[in-house]
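Input C-alpha cells:
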C-alpha cells in the first residue's frame, strides 16, 4: 500500500488521540511541587525535632527515597506517575523509582542474576551520563576560571 506523506499525516491525525499537553503540564507542576513541599515540610520537622541543618537534609533525602521505594513496591508510584508524568521525576523520587522498579521486575530471576544484575539497568545510564556531564562541566568551568 503506497500512500503519500500528506495522506499519511491525515490518517495519523485521525487515528491518534488528542494531546492533553496543558493538562499534563499542570499535573506535572502540581505533583512535582507537592513532592518538593513534602520534602520541605519533612526538613522543617526534622530541624524542629533537633537535627542540625546538614543532618536534616540527609534524613529528608533518605525519607523521600524510602517513601518513593515503598510506593513503587506496592504499585502506587506508577499510578501517581500515570497522571503526574514528569512531575514524579523530581530527582530523588524518580531515581528511587528507577532503582526499585527493575529490582521488582527481575526478582524472579534470583537475587544475584535478577536483582543484583538488573538493579541499575534503568538508573545506570542516568548515573553514567550525569557524572560524565558534571565532569565536563567542571573542566569547562575550571578552564574559564584560570
Amino acid at each position: 500500500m503506497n500512500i503519500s506523506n500528506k495522506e499519511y499525516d491525515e490518517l495519523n491525525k485521525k487515528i491518534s488521540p488528542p494531546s492533553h499537553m496543558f493538562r499534563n503540564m499542570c499535573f506535572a507542576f502540581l505533583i512535582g511541587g507537592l513532592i518538593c513541599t513534602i520534602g520541605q515540610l519533612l526538613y522543617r520537622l526534622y530541624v524542629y525535632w533537633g537535627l542540625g541543618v546538614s543532618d536534616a537534609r540527609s534524613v529528608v533525602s533518605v525519607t523521600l527515597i524510602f517513601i518513593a521505594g515503598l510506593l513503587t513496591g506496592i504499585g502506587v508510584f506508577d499510578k501517581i506517575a500515570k497522571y503526574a508524568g514528569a512531575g514524579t521525576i523530581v530527582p530523588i523520587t524518580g531515581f528511587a523509582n528507577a532503582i526499585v522498579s527493575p529490582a521488582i521486575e527481575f526478582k524472579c530471576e534470583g537475587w544475584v542474576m535478577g536483582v543484583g544484575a538488573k538493579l541499575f539497568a534503568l538508573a545506570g545510564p542516568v548515573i553514567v551520563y550525569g557524572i560524565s556531564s558534571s565532569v565536563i562541566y567542571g573542566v569547562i568551568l575550571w578552564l574559564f576560571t584560570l
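The chain has a mean pLDDT of 86. Residues 22-144 form one domain.
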